[in-house]
Amino acid sequence: MTEIVKKGFLTIPVSAKRHLLERFGVPCGGPADRILYTLANRLVGNPDDACALEATMVLPEIRFHEDGAIAVAGGLDRLLLRRGSETVAVPVNATVPVRAKDVLLSVPIVRGMRAYLAILGGIRCDALRAKGVSDGQMLLTDGGRPSVLRSANALPIRIPNDEVELRVIAGVQQELFSKEGEAVFYGSAYTYTPDSSRMGIRLSGPAVAYSGGCDGNILSEGMLPGDVQIPPSGQPILMLTDCPATGGYAKIAHVIAADLPLAAQLRPGARIRFRQTDVAWAHVALRRLLLQLDACVTDRT
C-alpha cells in the first residue's frame, strides 16, 4: 500500500493511452508526456504501460507502507525522502529503494510542467477510476525489492524553457486557409494562455485568416492529440492527450508525435512557433526519439 499524504497541485494516475475507443467518444487519454512516463517505468523495471502518477508543477507527498522502489522522471533538481528523523536527498531520474514508513516529500518541478512517479510493480488499476488522487488516498501496489538499480544518463527529451519550436505536418483542412493566413501561422509566435488543460493549449497571437467564405466551422470529424484547430476567432488551439474524439473546427496543422512531449512540458506564458515538415521526417524524428529513450537507461552499482 502507498498513501497519498498531500496530492499537490494536480496528481493523476495514468497508464498507456487507450486505443480503439474513439468511435465511442472516449478520448485517447494517458500520460501527457509519454516519453518521461515510459522512462519512469523503465527505471523501476515496470512494463512500459504500467500505471504511474503524473504530477503537475509539484510532486505529491507520499508515505510508503512497505519496502519497494520508485523512480521520478522529470525536471527536478532533487528528491527528498524522510526516513525516521532524517531527511535525505535522493536522485531524480533513477531507481530509489524505499522502506516501509519512508515519506517522499513534496518538491517543486523546476523545469517543465509535469513529472512522472513510477512505483515498482505498478499501481493497481483500481486507481484509474479516479480523475485525480486525493489527500489520504491509499493506492494498491505490488511492491517488492528492485533486482537492479538504474539511472538515466540524460533525459531523452529537452525540457523546453519559455519558447519552443514545434514541428508540424499539414492539417487535413489546410486548403481552407488563405495564403496570408498560413504565412501568419508559420511566421508568428503564439503565447500559451492560462485557459488551457490536458485537453488542449489555447494560444494567443496574430489571428489566422481563412479563405473567402470560410469561418472555421466544419462538420464534426475525428480528432487526435497534436491537431491544431483554428476556431472563428483565428486563435490556434493545440490538442493534447485528453482532447475530444471529435471536433468541428478546421485543422491547419498537426504536431508530430516526437514533439508532443515538448508541448506537454510547456507552462502558461511560454511562446510557441510552428515549423512545417513532412510525414517522412516525422517518422524519422520519432524513431530517433525512441532510440534516445532506449539508450538513456543504464544499470548502476
Describe this structure in words.
The chain is mainly beta and 301 residues long. It folds into two domains: 2-152, no CATH class; 163-280, Cyclophilin (Beta Barrel). The protein is 14% helix and 35% strand. It is built from four helices and 21 strands. The protein has helices at 34-43, 179-187, 260-264, 279-296; strands at 2-6, 10-14, 52-56, 61-64, 68-75, 79-83, 86-90, 96-98, 103-104, 111-119, 138-139, 149-152, 163-170, 190-192, 200-204, 217-222, 227-230, 237-239, 246-255, 271-276, 297-300. Strands 13-19-17-18-15-14-20 form a seven-stranded mixed barrel. The protein has a six-stranded antiparallel beta sheet with strand order 7-6-9-4-1-11, with no helix packed on it. The two termini are 28 Å apart. The mean pLDDT is 92.
Tally the structural domains: 2
**What radius of gyration results from the CA coordinates?**
20 Å
Major beta sheet, strand line-up: 13-19-17-18-15-14-20
Provide a count of the helices.
Answer: 4
| Class from helix and strand fractions | mainly beta
Helical fraction: 10-25%
In short:
The chain has helices at 34-43, 179-187, 260-264, 279-296; strands spanning 2-6, 10-14, 52-56, 61-64, 68-75, 79-83, 86-90, 96-98, 103-104, 111-119, 138-139, 149-152, 163-170, 190-192, 200-204, 217-222, 227-230, 237-239, 246-255, 271-276, 297-300.
